[in-house]
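Review form for a predicted model. The reviewer records the input and the model, then writes brief findings.
Reviewer: anonymous (R2)
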Amino acid sequence: MIGRLQRLIAGLWLGSAFFMMLAAAAAFRAAATPNEAADVVGAMLIRWHYIALGAPLLLFFLELRRVRALVLVVLFVSIVVATLQGFADLRIRSIRASSDIPISSMRRDNPIRRQFGILHGISSGLLLMQGVLAAAVIMTREKSDA
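Model under review:
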């Protein structure tokens, strides 16, 4: 029973990470302005952070019963990555909220736009890392269940 629950949680975590990446790309292609797309993606990210942090935390506590070091390390790293992504997202939101004009309307050499771009890159990389870590947990589970 616990094994099935863990697979379900890990599958939800992995699927939601890749859905988030696909949906963000689609939002920027379909929205009338980059600012509108950013609003949509930002709203999705708020919910994603609950999954990104909650799934590995729950799996970590469920895994403590089996004490498989590799899985526990991957889950711990996942929790750290999710926390860092949440902080990066909060900073991105702060930059957007404090700006009188959309970030995409600023000149490329504007220090605020550059800081925003760096944080956006970090956040995107951390999202991708979450997907990879979720896949690693699933692969590790499958290997040990076989």
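Findings: The CA atoms of residues 2 and 62 lie 8 Å apart.
Further findings: The chain has four helices and no strands.
Recommendation: see findings above.
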